[in-house]
Amino acid sequence: MNLFCKRMKDELGYEHAFGWPIYSRERGGRVMYHMIHATDRGEGRRS
Fold first, then answer.
1. pLDDT at 47 over 60
2. Fewer C-beta within 10 Å: the chain N or C terminus?
3. What is the mean pLDDT of the chain?
4. Where are the domains of the chain?
């Protein structure tokens, strides 16, 4: 996921890119997928 966020910044020019794991409640808390948020706005630093 960190490599994907780095590519979003390096190759697509986004100023900020963050990733979060999304967990399944039905499958014992296993990671289902990762959500990526990428933005050029300064407000994107808030987490």
1. no
2. C
3. 88
4. 2-45
